[in-house]
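sry for the spam today, last one i promise. struct tokens for design, 1456 residues
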């Protein structure tokens, strides 16, 4: 009989190892470790019992060893009869068989003794405790519906498991997994410290004595978990590396190849810690000396009303006014607070809500109309003028009814797409079909794509608009449905319903709260924060938790922590969110997680019930409790040995922007051990740096990768993906394609995960949740050809031997490339047609038009730009911390969107490209010349300001380990699939790289962070394309090559490669020992505040649910307590480089501190305050180059001086040379066209002149008038009169619009002043005013010139764009076809042409045509293109999907 199990005494504390060493000396034939096949039940039983004995009863085990030594000293051992190929049959007197019997009896006695001790303690405490203490859901004893006693309870062992036999069904071992020597790597390593927990419906309760016992057990005496993979990463049916030697299987592995057969002499070890779970060395858990649990908030401070209670809530819920419609209406109310005439629920009538029932496709477009009706009614009743004009984001709050739903407006189309998305999600929520987590549909492949955001602004003092707390008599009823995390607590006292202070209840609102539900306790207390709901947005971002429960059940609180009010606020963000329930439109939410380096807090709807708050919806499944949510995706009980800080970072998996690419059957997933260095194998444990496959698994090419490739929401430019960044269950990292040999090894498996990829585990009751088996694709393509060299790697390269001249040459070259690409005049030998093609192609590529169009298309379709690889991640860490949502007033993609009314792109590059393509020559056209000037200036300033250099011979891509072991430690491999760099000598695309290259990843703080490798070609790795393969050879690698590069790994890190000879040849690698952390470094500079899972669970024992949640949130929201040490030490390190040199010991120290601070949130390390203060005093100061990069001012800081012995600093030279060169280049891009022509005027004015000429031909005989502004004689020809009148109408409309255009450009229209009102004033003023002849510029307006208005800080451009959009709408809507039906023959486009022609005629300078582009960009381009001849009409979406082609000829390559 063969059975799989695992035993390794090296996993246990030293005292246990010493005792077991005494057994090894006895004639029992025990082994120090056993990773393979057991030949009998006796073998398996012995090692299973030993595992339980040494883990749970170490004191009794020591006594047992003493007895065994006495036993063997007095009598001989058993008799062994050899046979069967030397494998020996064991008979009755076999010493191992006899030993197994004694061991089993001793184990039973130890169990009985422990149980007896537990009962005695319970009886002793029974007289003190008035009732039994509840087992909290966070306690390691909450195991099921049985009352667990004794030592089994202490260890958390399920009594349903036969601990004597230690067997479970074969479902735990679906398939073998290769390991060294043909032995399955599914080595069971599930120690009894964290066995499978089984939860049932009943409340698990144990005597309170066990809680005391947990506190009394010294941490050193508890078994230490050294596993690298917990037992159930996905669900029970999933094949994993188990952690219990009690788990057995009859599956054989004699025919399975080992990893060593694939990857040169690598040996799997079964006692590796997860690299993400700190160093895997065996050490006792820290003794808790500093951490104390936080108390729960008082009842009167626990409930926060983000939206005030309103009497319509129950009615809206029952009448199916959906939450999305309520949220949108409330967001409009919140925005109205800035107008001075806020709208509240007191202004709403029942009949206002009648049109909001039903699907959002019907109700959504009506919400704004309902809100406008409320605004108008309030203005009439109160005598106030209804507020109007643009809101905070510059948009018009009071848009005319006829504009609503305008089919040609892009925003309206996007809103309708969002409303339909809301309806799909709502249907999925109510039917609970879970289609939203991922399906095969093309129309709706997944949900979770709608963002619900609440803006949080601190206030210096309490005000009426601050959020309110519930009255003192309010309370939250504990969850009544939790089947997993229930507690038995004292009966809750009777509480009164909440007091509702707000709108009066209309008499006809039968669904509102009764009078008895209102209290006269006075106004509720408040918190010094203003919270405003922002309109829902379909940003394209989707994450697992939103897909699992629905987008509307996740709210993002966006904190605005800038400004003096935030500094004066007396309540910190942590105090705001910890332990509180937020009520939004009658639903309750709790803060779940705050991502690092962000001001966002994600909150999830829970089943908390607030007394007095009616929950009328019954057509949707209830949400789980807060603790149930944790159990579903990140159950602490499954990995209790990890630090709480690390556990609290795992929700990143739930909130990662991703696309569910495919569903994987659990039986097609397996988990194998990581490849580690030989030194780690010999030692029996591996540090993070010694794990050579950290974060990277395998994926099949034929099935899973192909399904992901065909996913409708993903885009692959290079064909089927070779590397994917994914989230799967509690695993995260990369999956790379299997080789043919690996396909045979892992037959039947679609995904092979590594131990190091498993970050979080679900509670077994939720292990079958479908969302855990979706392969969530985070990023599908990473290769970029031609990247930037930023300041940090330049400083490191300079230190490692590259002369300054190499960087300065590249600096000048990159700036000259910008000039050559956008130069408006021809290069030598270049024709005018070639100039046009070059400029168009340059705008598309260097100007970023192509990328922006793809982002815009993704946003319109609700797809993730990040997953599609469209969001450019900066190579400079100082520029990479950008918020995903962008400015709260407008999405970042909208800043570069095409104006839906005028058709003018918001991007300078795109507007310039399209205008040049329509033959607006930048040497003659003021519009394109001005745009090209600003485009060149923007690109040059970006490079100079950010101190970055574009290098053509470079790339960036994912890094993956070599699973076949064919690469040496200093070798890399990269082969290209489609996009490839061009050989500078042959000008042909490269198939792969060969030769020396420089590699680095950001951030770079140590000399070793930039490394020279040799690129080689290996046919065995040819199946991997567009990724950088690094060595994972166990015998040759002393550490992971990725770890040398700034502590990288393979879970999604990208590395930049440079092969420019000027950089590579002089570079010399620094001593790799610099990358190693010196002993005692952490203790010297950091305080270790590590709270382990065991410690947390123990302290939470018997505490209330509110206390447990508050303490969970203290860790989950830890990013709110960020001390900003990362940015500080990045700056201090740069200062030390400047003053001391890159290789100075103090500089190295600061670089190492930065690396530890960067990971401090997960490690629990905190820089010592005295150390931080000393470093600031010693190294803080003002650096000119750094301040220029960050846009900072000196502000009286100490000026840092560089010693002369260190020579010139490279970044100073880069800045000075860049500024000088950029200024010289801008001379080729004048802001004013030197020789403007009338070609643009002639093209634009032609329709207007044709109409005027037609008027002249129709002039009645004897009529002396020759201009349209002269009134015809009475009784003149009727057609002529009508034509004259219509042309006059057009001219007055154009003149009024041009007057408003001048005011907008001069900032003379107030932020709340409506453009339509200003237009009407100017139009009416011109009706009776004297008219000027048609062939002269328009006359000035007779109205007084208004004063200038300063836009809010940082919003000048946004306000200008908004006003121009409103003007374009007035231009289009105020003059209709019916007003000029004769002159335009009923053709709307012809009317537009006439208006543009009239504007060209009325321009004060005929050679400066700017106004038509702002009001009707499309018609202006059409007229210019047709005037040049050879134009082609294309659909807009087709034209914008075309990529301009241009290839520079050798004759044009020279500089001018």
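last one done:
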């Amino acid at each position: 009989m063969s059975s799989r199990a695992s035993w390794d005494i090296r996993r246990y504390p030293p005292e246990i190892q010493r005792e077991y060493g005494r057994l090894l000396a006895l004639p029992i034939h025990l082994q120090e470790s056993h990773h393979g096949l057991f030949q009998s039940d006796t073998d398996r039983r012995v090692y299973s019992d030993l595992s339980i004995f040494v883990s749970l009863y170490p004191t009794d085990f020591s006594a047992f060893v003493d007895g065994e030594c006495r036993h063997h000293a007095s009598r001989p051992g058993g008799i062994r009869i050899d046979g069967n190929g030397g494998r020996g049959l064991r008979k009755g007197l076999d010493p191992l068989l006899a030993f197994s019997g004694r061991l089993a009896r001793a184990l039973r006695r130890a169990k009985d003794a422990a149980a007896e001790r537990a009962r005695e303690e319970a009886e002793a405490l029974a007289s003190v405790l008035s009732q039994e203490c509840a087992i909290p859901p966070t306690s390691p004893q909450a195991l099921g519906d049985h009352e667990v006693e004794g030592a089994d309870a202490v260890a958390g062992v399920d009594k349903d498991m036969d601990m004597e036999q230690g067997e479970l069904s074969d479902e735990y071992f679906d398939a073998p997994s290769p390991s060294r020597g043909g032995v399955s790597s599914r080595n069971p390593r599930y120690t009894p410290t964290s066995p499978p927990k089984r939860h049932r419906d009943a409340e698990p309760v144990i005597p309170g004595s066990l809680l005391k016992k947990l506190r009394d057990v010294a941490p050193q005496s508890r078994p230490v978990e050294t596993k690298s993979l917990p037992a159930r990463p996905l669900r029970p049916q999933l094949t994993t590396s188990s952690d219990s030697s009690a788990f057995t299987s009859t599956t054989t592995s004699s025919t399975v190849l080992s990893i060593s057969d694939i990857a040169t002499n690598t040996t799997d070890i079964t006692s590796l810690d997860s690299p993400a779970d700190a160093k895997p060395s065996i050490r006792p858990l820290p003794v808790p000396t500093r951490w104390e649990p936080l108390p729960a908030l008082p009842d009167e401070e626990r409930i926060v009303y983000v939206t005030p209670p309103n009497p319509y809530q129950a009615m809206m819920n029952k009448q199916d006014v959906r939450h999305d419609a309520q949220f949108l209406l409330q967001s409009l109310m919140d925005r109205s607070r800035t107008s001075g005439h806020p709208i509240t629920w007191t202004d709403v009538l029942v009949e206002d809500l009648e049109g909001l029932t039903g699907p959002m496709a019907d109700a959504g477009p009506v919400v704004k109309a309902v809100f406008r009706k409320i605004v108008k009614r309030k203005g009439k009743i109160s005598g106030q003028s209804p507020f109007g004009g643009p809101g905070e984001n510059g948009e018009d709050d009071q848009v005319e009814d006829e504009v609503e739903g305008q089919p040609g407006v892009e925003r309206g189309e996007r809103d309708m797409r969002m409303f339909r998305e809301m309806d799909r999600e709502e249907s999925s929520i109510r039917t609970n079909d879970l289609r939203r987590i991922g399906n095969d549909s093309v129309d709706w492949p997944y949900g979770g794509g709608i963002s619900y955001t609440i803006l949080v602004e601190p206030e210096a003092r309490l005000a009426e608009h601050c959020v309110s707390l519930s009255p003192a008599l309010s309370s939250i009823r504990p969850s009544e449905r939790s089947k997993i995390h229930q507690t038995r607590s004292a009966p809750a006292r009777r509480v009164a319903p909440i007091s509702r202070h707000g709108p009066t209840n209309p008499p006809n609102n039968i669904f509102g709260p009764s009078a008895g539900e209102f209290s006269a306790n006075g106004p509720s207390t408040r918190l010094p924060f203003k919270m405003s709901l922002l309109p829902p947005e379909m940003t394209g971002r989707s994450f697992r938790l939103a897909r699992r429960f629905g987008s509307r059940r996740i709210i993002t609180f966006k904190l605005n922590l800038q400004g003096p009010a935030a500094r004066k606020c007396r309540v910190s963000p942590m105090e705001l969110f910890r332990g509180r329930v937020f009520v939004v439109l009658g639903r309750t939410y709790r803060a779940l997680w705050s991502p690092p380096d962000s001001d966002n807090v994600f909150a999830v709807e829970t089943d908390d019930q607030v007394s007095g708050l009616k929950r009328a919806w019954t057509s949707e499944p209830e949400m789980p409790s807060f603790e149930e949510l944790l159990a579903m995706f990140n159950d602490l009980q499954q990995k209790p040995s990890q630090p709480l800080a690390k556990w609290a970072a795992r929700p990143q998996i739930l909130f990662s922007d991703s696309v569910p690419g495919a569903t994987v059957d659990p039986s097609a997933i397996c988990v194998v051990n990581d490849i580690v260095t030989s030194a780690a194998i010999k030692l029996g444990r591996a540090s993070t740096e010694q794990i050579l496959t950290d974060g990277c698994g395998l994926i099949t090419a034929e099935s899973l990768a192909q399904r992901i490739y065909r996913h409708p929401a993903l885009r692959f430019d290079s064909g089927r993906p070779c590397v994917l960044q994914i989230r799967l269950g509690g695993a995260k990292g990369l999956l790379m394609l299997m080789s043919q040999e690996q396909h045979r090894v892992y037959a039947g498996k679609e995904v092979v995960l590594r131990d190091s990829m498993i970050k979080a585990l679900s509670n077994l009751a939720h292990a079958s949740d479908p969302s855990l088996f979706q392969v969530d694709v985070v990023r599908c393509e990473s290769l970029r050809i031609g990247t930037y060299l930023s300041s940090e790697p330049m400083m490191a390269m300079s230190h490692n031997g590259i002369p300054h001249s190499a960087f300065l040459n590249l600096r000048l070259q990159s700036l000259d490339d910008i000039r050559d690409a956008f130069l408006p005049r021809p290069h030598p030998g270049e024709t005018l047609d070639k100039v046009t093609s070059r400029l168009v192609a340059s705008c598309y590529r260097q100007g970023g038009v192509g990328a922006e169009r793809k982002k815009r298309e993704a946003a319109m379709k609700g797809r993730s730009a990040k997953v599609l690889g469209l969001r450019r991640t900066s190579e400079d860490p100082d520029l990479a911390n950008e918020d995903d949502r962008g400015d709260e007033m407008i999405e970042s993609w909208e800043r570069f969107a095409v104006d839906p009314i005028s058709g003018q792109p918001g991007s300078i590059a795109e507007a310039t490209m399209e205008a040049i393509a329509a033959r607006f020559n930048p040497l003659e056209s003021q519009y394109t010349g001005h745009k090209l000037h600003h485009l060149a200036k923007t690109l040059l300033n970006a490079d100079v300001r950010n101190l970055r250099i574009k290098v053509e011979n470079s790339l960036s891509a994912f890094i993956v380990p070599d699973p076949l072991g064919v690469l040496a430690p200093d070798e890399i491999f990269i082969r290209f699939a489609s996009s490839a760099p061009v050989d500078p000598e042959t000008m042909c695309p490269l198939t792969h790289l060969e030769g020396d290259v420089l590699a680095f990843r950001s951030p770079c703080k140590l000399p070793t962070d930039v490394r020279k490798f040799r690129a080689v070609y290996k046919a065995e790795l040819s199946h991997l394309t567009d990724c950088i393969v690094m060595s994972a050879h166990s015998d040759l690698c002393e550490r992971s090559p990725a770890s040398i590069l700034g502590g990288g790994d393979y879970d999604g890190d990208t590395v930049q490669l440079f092969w420019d000879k000027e950089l590579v040849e002089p570079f010399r690698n620094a001593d790799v020992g610099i990358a190693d952390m010196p002993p005692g470094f952490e203790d010297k500079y950091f305080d270790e505040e590590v709270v382990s899972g065991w410690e947390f669970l123990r302290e939470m024992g018997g505490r209330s649910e509110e206390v447990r949640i508050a303490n969970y949130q203290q860790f989950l929201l830890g990013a709110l307590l960020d001390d900003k040490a990362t940015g500080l030490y990045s700056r201090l390190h740069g200062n030390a480089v400047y003053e001391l040199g890159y290789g100075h010991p103090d500089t190295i120290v600061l670089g190492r501190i930065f690396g530890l601070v960067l990971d401090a949130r997960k490690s629990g390390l905190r820089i010592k305050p005295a150390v931080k203060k000393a470093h600031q005093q010693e190294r803080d100061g003002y650096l000119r180059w750094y301040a220029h990069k960050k846009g900072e001012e000196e502000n009286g800081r100490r000026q840092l001086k560089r010693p002369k012995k260190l020579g010139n600093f490279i970044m100073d030279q880069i800045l000075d040379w860049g500024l000088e060169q950029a200024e010289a280049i801008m001379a080729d891009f004048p802001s004013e066209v030197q020789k403007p022509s009338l070609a643009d005027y002639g093209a634009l004015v032609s329709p207007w002149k044709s109409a005027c000429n037609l008027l002249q031909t129709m002039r009645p005989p004897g009529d002396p008038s020759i201009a349209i502004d002269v009134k015809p004689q009475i009784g003149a020809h009727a057609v002529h009169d009508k034509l004259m009148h219509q042309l006059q109408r057009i001219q007055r409309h154009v003149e009024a619009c041009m007057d408003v255009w001048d005011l907008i450009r001069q900032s003379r229209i107030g932020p709340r002043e409506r453009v339509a009102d200003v237009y009407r004033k100017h139009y009416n003023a011109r009706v009776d005013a004297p008219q000027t002849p048609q062939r002269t510029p328009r006359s000035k307006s007779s109205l007084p010139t208004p004063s200038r208005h300063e836009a809010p800080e940082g919003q000048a451009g946004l306000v200008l764009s908004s006003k121009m959009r409103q003007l374009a709408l007035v231009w289009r809507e105020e003059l209709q076809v019916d007003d000029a039906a004769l002159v335009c023959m009923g053709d709307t486009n012809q009317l537009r042409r006439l208006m543009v022609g009239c504007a060209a005629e009325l321009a004060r300078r005929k050679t400066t045509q700017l106004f038509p582009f702002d009001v009707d960009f499309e018609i202006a381009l059409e007229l210019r293109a047709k005037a040049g001849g050879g134009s082609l009409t294309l659909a807009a979406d087709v034209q914008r999907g075309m990529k301009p082609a241009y290839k520079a000829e050798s004759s044009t390559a020279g500089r001018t």
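Residues 95-126 form the longest helix (32 residues). ok im logging off now
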